[in-house]
Design brief:
alpha+beta; 33% helix; 206 residues; 38% strand; 5 helices; 5-stranded antiparallel β-sheet
Length: 206
């Protein structure tokens, strides 16, 4: 997977619909175990709620899970999961907690309320695209440092760390597709004296 979308921050939002209180909570999670731990914590926090409806989507195994938690089938968990699916969001747990206010909403009203709560939470948390990048290192002399440090951002790379020792070592990340182009530019700029070393891959905000 070259790119994926996920939420920027963990938070909760709430609104009231016909005296029922809906609390939408979003959490960034990266495994099913983490999703279930977060879910257990929220159920403990909102132990007195009428329902704790949830959905989560994970890159790990491409998992998609949801629960109506006692609401009529198809009126709660599935609409919450659809919020994640429509925005193509993954590595995310979305829980909508309901405190029943005494007024029945009907099937259509429940779908709208749960969808609204989930959408509000995701909109407030924000969505970011994560892109798979090559993690690289270049070692150069102090005389070459100015040219090399300028060349990395020119090729849309981001410098993560610079170590000034006997020579200068720059650690950075950039799109894999640009790496060959950068290597050629680096060879030209340093008369072949410097090479780029790719040591791993990781996801970064696009």
């Amino acid at each position: 997977m070259k790119e994926y979308k996920t939420v920027i921050q963990d938070l909760s939002t709430e609104f009231v619909e016909k005296r029922s209180r809906f609390i939408g909570t979003v959490r960034h999670v990266e495994s099913e175990d983490e999703a279930l731990r977060c879910l257990a914590g929220l159920k403990s926090q909102y132990w007195d709620a009428t329902h704790n409806v949830y959905a989560y989507a994970l890159r790990e195994g491409q998992l998609r899970r949801f629960s109506d938690d006692g609401e009529p089938q198809g009126t709660a968990g599935k609409p919450v999961l659809e919020v994640l699916s429509k925005l193509d969001i993954t590595d995310c747990l979305l829980v909508v907690t309901r405190y029943f206010g005494g007024v029945l909403l009907g099937a259509g009203g429940l779908v709208r309320a749960y969808s609204k709560s989930a959408s509000m939470a995701v909109a407030e948390a924000g969505v970011v695209t994560m892109s798979l990048c090559a993690c690289c290192r270049v070692t150069c002399t102090y005389n070459q440092y100015g040219r090399v440090s300028a060349l990395i951002p020119e090729c849309d790379g981001v410098i993560d760390d610079t170590a000034f020792l006997e020579n200068v070592s720059l650690t950075f990340h950039m799109d894999e597709a640009v790496l060959d182009y950068f290597a050629k530019r680096l060879a030209d700029a340093t008369s072949g004296a410097c090479n780029v070393e790719k040591f791993s891959e990781a996801y970064y905000k696009k």
